[in-house]
């Protein structure tokens, strides 16, 4: 997927919001909590970064094409410098999982407000 396609996909996820922060980084959030970042080329955070399920972080961060996300690895985030390294299906699955992990961590009241 291209960054533009990832941007469009993230925007269609339930209760997702889009902002631009940190020198042009596109940030997607659910309930005010980040789940995916799309950075300009050569930005220090990595091209595409997203929240990993905590139980998958160690294996995923060492997988080919992935690396611990700068500044966010302590929160179990990974980066993909070349989004074309993954199939469209794989990228969508990782991003959907990131969204789900963040949404599930929101307070029940906030989840209800957002229709999640």
TrEMBL record:
InterPro entries: YjbR, YjbR-like_sf, YjbR/MT2646/Rv2570-like
One Pfam family it belongs to: YjbR
Coiled coil: none
Protein name: MmcQ/YjbR family DNA-binding protein
Source organism per UniProt: Reyranella soli
